[in-house]
């Protein structure tokens, strides 16, 4: 019986691939799932959002500034002042009554700091000075638009989704993970409105297989899209329709046995041909209207020997059936808290703190903004990234404890830190792939198809089939490249992480000039045309420092920093230092600084 079921499913999978319009097997086009049914037309909006270049008002002259012990009180004069400011950016409009309108000022920012922050948040790495100067020239609105149009912006958001949905190919079918990744690309290309995205996710195999119990599925959906757990009556009601899902295993004809989500046929009469009027209440949600979800089995159904019930693989569902199953997501998108949580997530991600509870006007303005642009989530990213809340300095004198009066300061993700180190210095590293958290699971399968999937992924695998996990091992110690089986990504500063980081920087910069350590290419650490054996002078030390600050830190050094380099070069020259003997320790000093960990 088990063998015949496997053969039936293998045959049906080939038919399903044809129905989805995909080739039977392509390691670079592995996605199969409901994400392929949406976002296949034009973009929702043009992507040309206003409000990127507001002329910010000066603080209103007031008799006394707010005293920091309570939220600022915006009186009639304050309201009139903010209305007259004619601010186009919704974040700036929302902030005005708690900032400029009450006499407070924001913290001015320099272009280097702002550009570096935008690169890290949007592109996933620190820029070189040349990149920063060319990309961040002109207005901030144009800069953000340029960065939003890059493939790296899409990739960074796909990796955020992997953290949010805890991709794990040991728990979920890898084809479903690839489909969710494809759906995220469509979302950030502006082809899928956020409410439609949430509806698809609410019945996506990544979510349905990740959480086994119906109640757990409800919990996950509420936390993902409302930012809170469901009330007990909400959980009990929605669990009735989520009870249709069953966690099983799918025998892929080439990739072998994989975990996947199946549809159960509940609330039917004994002949399985019609709805049982007595049982159908167990498959009906009534809190958000009357939503009955009962499916009648047909030739696509097969007997599951484990639970002794008819089930159907999700890859055989039609577009209409997917639409019915996405009812839980659609009902949540009708709630205002759904849209509020959508904008709160973007604010939290870029600012690093919760702004909405402190200044609720910002949330209200952003919700209206998002709805105005048809649910195009890119509009919210653009608004936050070009706002005064984001484009202000985290350094310098802070005249107030009001958090929105100075800029964000956040810790870099592990991958951002490693990638920036490697790309800026030319140091060769491997990689990891957020879609395949457990590559060894595919390798254990031993099939050529599994090898081809890994070879086409971002994992590094040699011609002998050996996986290079050096990057992943380093990143996982620092909280990145999560396996997502139990927990996900984390950020921490500890003795272990600091030691790990210093060890990596030591290998990269090789300050002791050990023959056993390859290190970064010397030509990246020295000015063009300078040989490593050249005798060091104070002027050469300054040139080396100028090159490394621009290449490794992405900015021009200050006069004070150049003076320090000149003094260090003078001392080193007394010991007859070479250019390399000065450059490599300087690399270590710069790369191990806090500026490389926080932004």
What does this structure look like?
It is a single chain. By secondary structure, the protein is mainly α. The protein has a domain at 522-596. The chain has 26 helices and eight strands. The strands form three sheets. Strands 1-2-6-5 form a four-stranded antiparallel β-sheet. Helix 3 packs antiparallel against helix 16 (360-372), helix 11 (214-225) crosses helix 12 (232-242) and helix 15 (336-351) crosses helix 16 (360-372). The longest helix has 18 residues, at 2-19. This is Lipoprotein. Keywords: Signal. Residues 1-18 form the signal peptide.
List segments where confidence is low: pLDDT < 50 over at least 5 consecutive residues: 1-22
Mean pLDDT: 93
The strand count comes to 8
**What is the radius of gyration computed over CA atoms, rounded to a whole number of angstroms?**
28 Å
**Number of H/I helices:** 26
The best one-word shape is flat
Q: What share of the residues lie within helices?
A: 40-55%
Q: β content, as a range?
A: 5-15%
Organism: Hyalangium minutum
Protein name: Lipoprotein
Keywords: Signal
Signal peptide: 1-18
């Amino acid at each position: 019986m088990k063998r015949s079921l496997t053969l039936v499913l293998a045959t049906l999978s080939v038919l399903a691939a044809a129905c989805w319009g995909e080739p039977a097997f392509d390691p670079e086009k592995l996605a199969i799932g409901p994400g392929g049914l949406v976002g296949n037309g034009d973009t929702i909006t043009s992507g040309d959002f206003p409000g990127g270049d507001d002329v910010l008002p000066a603080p209103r002259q007031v008799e006394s500034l707010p005293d920091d012990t309570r939220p600022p009180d915006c009186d009639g004069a304050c309201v009139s002042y903010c209305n007259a400011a004619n601010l186009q950016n919704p974040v700036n409009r929302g902030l005005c009554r708690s900032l400029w309108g009450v006499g407070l000022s924001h913290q001015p920012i320099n272009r280097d700091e702002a550009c570096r922050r935008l690169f890290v948040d949007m592109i996933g790495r620190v820029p070189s000075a040349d990149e920063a100067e060319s990309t961040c020239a002109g207005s901030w609105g144009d800069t953000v638009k340029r960065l939003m149009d890059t493939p790296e912006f899409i990739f960074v958001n796909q990796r955020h989704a992997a953290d949010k949905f805890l991709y794990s190919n040991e728990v979920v079918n890898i084809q479903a993970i690839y489909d969710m990744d494809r759906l995220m690309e469509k979302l950030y290309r502006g082809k899928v409105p956020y409410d439609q995205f949430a509806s698809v996710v609410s019945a996506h195999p990544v979510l349905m297989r990740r959480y086994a119990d119906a109640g757990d599925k409800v919990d996950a959906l509420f936390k993902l899209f409302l930012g809170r757990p469901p009330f007990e009556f909400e959980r009990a009601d929605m669990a009735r329709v989520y009870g249709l899902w069953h966690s099983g295993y799918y025998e892929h004809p080439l990739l072998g046995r994989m975990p996947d989500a199946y549809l159960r046929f509940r609330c039917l009469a004994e002949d399985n041909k019609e709805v049982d009027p007595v049982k159908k209440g167990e498959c009906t949600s009534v809190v958000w209207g009357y939503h009955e979800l009962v499916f009648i089995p047909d030739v696509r159904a097969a007997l599951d020997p484990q639970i002794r019930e008819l089930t159907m693989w999700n890859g055989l569902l039609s577009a209409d059936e997917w639409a019915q199953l996405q009812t839980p997501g659609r009902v949540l998108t009708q709630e205002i808290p759904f849209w509020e949580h959508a904008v709160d997530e973007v604010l939290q991600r870029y600012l690093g703190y919760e702004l909405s509870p402190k200044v609720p006007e910002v949330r209200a303005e952003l919700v209206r903004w998002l709805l105005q642009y048809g649910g195009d989530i890119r509009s919210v990213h653009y608004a936050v990234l070009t706002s005064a809340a984001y484009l202000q300095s985290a350094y310098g004198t802070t005249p107030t404890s009001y958090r929105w009066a100075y800029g964000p300061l956040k810790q870099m993700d592990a991958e951002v830190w490693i990638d920036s180190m490697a790309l800026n210095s030319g140091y060769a590293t491997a990689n990891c792939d957020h879609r395949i958290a457990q590559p060894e699971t595919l390798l254990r399968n031993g099939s050529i198809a599994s090898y081809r999937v890994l070879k086409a992924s971002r994992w590094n695998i040699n011609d002998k089939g050996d996986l290079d996990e050096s990057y992943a091992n380093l990143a996982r110690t620092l909280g990145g490249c999560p396996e997502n089986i139990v927990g996900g990504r984390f950020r921490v500063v500890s003795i272990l992480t600091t030691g790990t980081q210093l060890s990596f920087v030591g290998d990269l910069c090789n300050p002791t000039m050990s023959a056993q350590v390859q290190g970064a290419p010397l030509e990246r650490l020295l000015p063009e045309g300078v040989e490593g054996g050249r005798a060091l002078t104070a002027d050469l030390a300054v040139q080396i420092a100028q090159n490394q600050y621009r290449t490794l830190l992405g900015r021009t050094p200050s006069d004070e920093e150049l003076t320090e380099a000149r003094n260090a070069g003078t001392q080193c020259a007394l010991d007859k230092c070479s250019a390399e003997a000065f450059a490599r320790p300087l690399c270590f000093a710069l790369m191990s600084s806090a500026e490389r960990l926080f932004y």
